[in-house]
């Protein structure tokens, strides 16, 4: 469908639906993990199914809204990640430190540092796409603790959270 034919109210509703379904997807996935940890395997499976259903809803809302091309998506990703590591997370860290909440401060700090890495990687990818090329990398790895992403090979230890590099997960399509 032509995005110009969708009313502003429907565009707003699609994005609100996308945000809500996306949050429900991650929340129910975490609820599934917790239920499994507590030994409730069928409840965990139900939460997992609901999580996957919410993902379907979120993706469909975004598809109907319209997904731009890769170059535009990379620019939007850089903008979003930069906002998070320069403004959002520093403010969250200040607040959690003022409250003495070390767990929240650590969580926000890990995310802030990982978002800065993500923005840099997206910059590299955008330069490649502008040149008409794909990102020239053989492997991409993810830290399961802080969300740091590294190219080519896992480090000896994560520079953000210190987790051993052997715990990094290779990300594939």
From TrEMBL:
The keyword Transcription regulation does not apply. Residues 4-133 form the Ferritin-like diiron domain. SUPFAM superfamilies: Ferritin-like (SSF47240), Rubredoxin-like (SSF57802). Keywords: Electron transport, Transport. Residues 138-171 form the Rubredoxin-like domain. GO terms for molecular function: iron ion binding; oxidoreductase activity. The keyword Nucleotide-binding does not apply. PROSITE patterns: FERRITIN_LIKE, RUBREDOXIN_LIKE. This is Rubrerythrin. The lineage of its organism: Archaea, Methanobacteriati, Methanobacteriota, Stenosarchaea group, Methanomicrobia.
